[in-house]
Every structure is written in C-alpha cells, then in structure tokens.
Design goal:
This protein is of the alpha/beta class. It is built from twelve helices and 17 strands. A seven-stranded parallel β-sheet has the order 8-9-7-11-13-14-15, sandwiched between helices. It comes from Ammoniphilus oxalaticus.
C-alpha cells in the first residue's frame, strides 16, 4: 500500500549557511530529529507544526528580521512524463537511431554511476539485475526501492539494459544504475522526496541524474538543489514534458539538459514540450524497454522515454573520460548535435545527438588537449 503523507511539510530557504544554522539552533530537539537539512543549498524541510514553533521562538526573541529573511516554500508535487502505454513488442529503434551499438567496442558506459529519480527499479529483472548497484527509497524509507509502477524500470532499461542474448539492450549496457525512488505507484512525488534524492545522489558520487518528470510550477528549492548537484559534477538530464506547451520544471532550469521527444520518422512528437532552453530531442515514441511484471517488456511513449537515451549517451562519454565536467559534456553534445529539417528550433533545440558523433567529438577534444 502506498505511503500517505498525513502531515504537511514546508521548506525554509536561507540566504547563507550561517542563517540556516542559526534557525536550526532555534528549533527544539524533537523538531531537529524530524527535519531534513540541506546545507549545500541553505535549506531545510520540516513539518508545518515545527515551523509554527520556530516562528513563536523568533517572536519571543524579538527577531522578526530573521523571520523576514526566510523564504518559505510548500511541498509541491511532480508527475511522471509518460504518455501512452501499449502491449506491443518491437526492437528498440531508439538505441539504433542514436547509433549506440556502433560505439560499444569503444565504450559501453562501464563503471559510470547513473541515478534514476523515478518510481524505483526492478533490480531482479534479468535484463537489469547485473547493473542495478543500489539506491534509496525517499518516498518510504522503511521499504526498498521496488518499482510498483513500471515507469522507473522502463527508464532504467533504456539507459542500461544488459547486452545479452534476450530482451532489449540499453544505450550504455555496462553503466551502473542507482534507483532513487521518490514516486508513488500512481506516478506523483513530493518536492521533499525529490530534494532528498538529489542530496543522496550528491553524497554517493552519482555522475548522471535522469529526471523523467516535471511540474508546471517552478521551485526555488529544487533549483538550488540542482545547482548544488551541478557544482558536485553531476550532469542532469530532464524530460521536457508531454503537454505540447512550454517546458516543465526542472527541464526549464538552465543547469539541466532539457530533452524533447522524437518519433521513428525523425519528427518531433506532437506532445513534446518546447522552449528556447530546450537542448535536444531523442527517441520518445513507441519505445520498448524493460517492465517489472510479465512479460517483462513494454512499449511507452513520452519525453520520459527520451531523457534516458541522453543519460545513456552521457554514460558512454564518462566511461571514456571520467574527468569530464557537466559543461564539457554539454559542449561535446552541442558539437555532435544535428538539427532536424523543417522543425522549429524551439521544438528541437540543437537537434539529435548520436553516439558515434559524440565519441568522435570527444576524441577530437582529447587530441587537441594532448597537443597543447
């Protein structure tokens, strides 16, 4: 049964760490045990009743200026970006479209940690079990990261399904998958759980973070968390959204790579969100991948399916050069991208990135660096 949040959470955001810690010191011990502290981006989440206690203490100490410096944000919800589900099974055309098999003799993503913020991953799936290395359940800390929806397992398969004699294969078949389960079975997640997952990814040295979800509502807390992850060297890949409207968040934040959907006819999908900060498009229509229940595979459409193709590309790059920064990865992808004819720029960004062109760009960069 899904966990229900019976108590309301709030986020408090401070201008700096000193004021954050001063707030922390003003809280009673009981509240300290229940809150989550995010020192990297000067935030904490706590129950609303504990916030009322904090306000009372500030009032008693005649420190209204301190209260005015606090930015309070509610615990908004995010939804997964999958569109249509079908039972047909076909060869995953997206892996071929981005030319991943052509580079596997050079790179299969070995050893690169990829975090999947989603509904969990079925770690026992025969096409995934060798690559799922760990994870966390921030939605319900008393349970493992079992996928009771299917979305997360599908995303994981596109990133790193094993290259074996059955099923499907992912973009980076030797990458290491980490399940960051934030989403309920019905496909919604609270900001408090997503923030905790990003913090977990930072502390566990994840290199690529797939975020196949979004909200039309901007969140200063989420933006700070994403900035902190970027500073920690994590490349973040976010799905654009499926409303044929402007980009959802977190895809709209400039620190993330925003990914729209492409169909097998090389056309931008009609549902794919758009905007001037859209980075690339990738396969996102009728994508076959792993599934947690029999027959073990399913075909989905949505920008949720596009983002993991790009996450897999990032893993292929990092396996070749682990020292690459997120900025360097983005520059290499920009160089490798090719635009789609007759598609508006705000609906395709820089276009399509293939693995062969991407690794060629990396090779060129490495040669240039060695000659200096």
């Amino acid at each position: 049964m899904a966990k229900k949040r019976e108590q309301e959470h709030l986020f408090l955001m401070y201008p700096n760490e000193r004021q954050l810690l001063r707030c922390y010191d003003n809280l009673p011990k009981r509240a300290k045990r229940r809150l989550r502290l995010y020192a990297r981006w000067h935030c904490l989440s706590l129950l609303k009743e504990d916030y009322e206690t904090l306000k009372s203490r500030l009032l008693i100490s005649n420190d209204q200026d301190e209260e005015q410096r606090i930015t309070v944000e509610s615990n908004i919800q995010f939804t997964l970006h999958d569109a249509n589900r079908a039972s047909k099974q076909t060869v995953p055309w997206g892996i071929s479209r981005l030319q991943a098999p052509q580079v596997w003799t050079t790179s299969e993503g070995a050893g690169v940690k990829v975090g999947v913020i989603d509904t969990g991953i079925n770690a026992h799936h025969p096409d995934l079990n060798g690559n799922v290395k760990g994870g966390v359940n921030t939605f319900n800390s008393t349970s493992p990261f079992v996928d009771d929806n299917g979305h997360g397992t599908h995303v994981a398969g596109t990133i790193a399904a094993l290259n074996n004699s059955f099923g499907v294969v992912g973009m980076a078949p030797r990458a290491e998958l980490y399940a960051l389960k934030c989403f309920a079975p019905e496909g919604t997640a609270d900001l408090v759980d997503i923030a905790q997952a990003i913090d977990w990814a930072i502390h566990h040295q994840v290199r690529v973070l797939n975020m196949s979800f979004g909200s039309a509502e901007s969140s200063p807390v989420l933006h700070r968390a994403i900035k902190a992850a970027l500073q920690a060297g994590i490349i973040m890949v976010a799905s654009a959204g499926n409303s044929s409207a402007t980009l959802d968040y977190p895809a709209r934040y400039p620190e993330a790579l925003a990914i729209g959907a492409l169909d097998s006819q090389n056309r931008v999908a009609s549902f794919s969100n758009y905007g001037k900060t859209l980075n690339y498009v990738a396969p996102g229509v009728d994508i076959l991948s792993t599934w947690p229940v029999p027959p073990g595979y399913n075909t989905l459409s949505g920008t949720s399916m596009s983002a993991p193709h790009i996450s897999g590309l990032c893993a292929l790059l990092l396996a070749q050069n682990p020292e690459l920064t997120p900025l360097q990865i983005k520059r290499l992808m920009d160089q490798a991208a090719r635009r789609i004819p007759r598609a508006p720029l705000n609906k395709q960004g820089r276009g399509v990135v293939t693995a062969s062109r991407l690794l060629a760009a990396l090779s060129k960069m490495n040669k240039s660096s060695s000659s200096c």
